[in-house]
Amino acid sequence: MKNFSLIIFCLLFAGVNAPAADLTYIMPGTRQNAMGGAFTSVADDPYTVFYNPAGLSNLTNIETDFSLGRRLSPLAGEGETAFVYARPSPDNASQTAGFGYYAVRQGALGSRDAFSFGMGARTTIKYFQKPLLYGGGIKLVSLRYAQKSHLGLGFDGGLLLESNSGLKTSLVLTDVVMGLGRALATITLGNSYRYGGTIFAMDLRARGAYSEFFMGAERDLFNGLLQARAGKGFTLNGADYLALGLGVNALPLTIDFTWSLPWKGFNQQAGFYGMGASYRFGSPSFSEKLVGEAGRKAEELKTQINDLRAQEDRLRTSVETYRVNKGVLGTDLTMMQTRLRGAEGQLRNLELEILEAQGRKEKPKPVKKYVPPPPEKWPRLHKVEAGETLRSIASKYYGNPNLWERVYQSNEKYISKGLPLEGAIFTIPAPPPSDK
Exposed/middle/buried for 114, CB within 10 Å: 0-12, 13-18, 19+? Predict the structure, then answer.
């Protein structure tokens, strides 16, 4: 994600400011113009219906906004007004619909009216840190010049991807309109990054052979009560300027102001001046939001304190465990040293035994002559115990119960009904030769 965004930033810096843009290039919104028009990846208010329909799914309340503005140009002054409305879907919390109207008047140079109807949604994709936002809409555009007028119908579409680090990336296709006598299709690559209370935004817009780079920033002041903005303003008929702005978030009402400083001095006919007001239905007031944020921060601090206390307890437990383990290891070390000393003594004894064995090997003792053991004496006497049988007696003396007949033949008078008489003294003859 970060590598991809770095590539896009490099592409943004490659933008070329081609010949001066006309009224078809400018975009509505007091706040958006103060940020230099770099809004496709910020996309967090109803004007996103014009910049990136995917951002509509960021809106969770019904919102409406109205703005008035005036642009200075070397050719002719321009006046504009815009109205936008956004409403989340009551049946699907991840979908939001939006409507926008934008009217531009530049005297004899022409006029423009645009109606946009958009829908934004979100979906979850595996391995992405946050949901992917996507959206699209239809657009009705009217261009009127002194020579000829045109009415066209087209569509917009966009994607918005966000990471946990605060980086957003957008890809938008806008003004794909037919019937205007010229191609207005525009591709925009956008990036924005939030660092603390500051948003840095950059957009590269390309239409045919014309490309222009936009950048802007917004800074929260006084816990978000005020917002200071600055950016590179929209170029109109070749007039460049620095756009500045201020927003007052008296929620649920927000008021925005925009003014500008021409790059070549105040005597240049360039710049944008405007104001707008928006209302967010169902939104808590600024004081409620401030109290809520304070409570949330207090809860976060309590959680952090509890975590630190838990870490302290774990560290203390770890220290006690370390001390116990240190004592156990000390005892083990003493035992190992004792065993080492014992092993050293055993090693010395083994060395002595090896020396003695080598001496015995050099002077071996005379081999003793083998004397066979005396032969077994037969016959033997056996006193019959209770429970014994001829087979058990044969197994005891011959190791083979099948030789019971040999015992029977020698002691037939002491056998009754096939069983030896208890207490009788049997004469056990010698076993038969092994070759029989």
Answer: buried
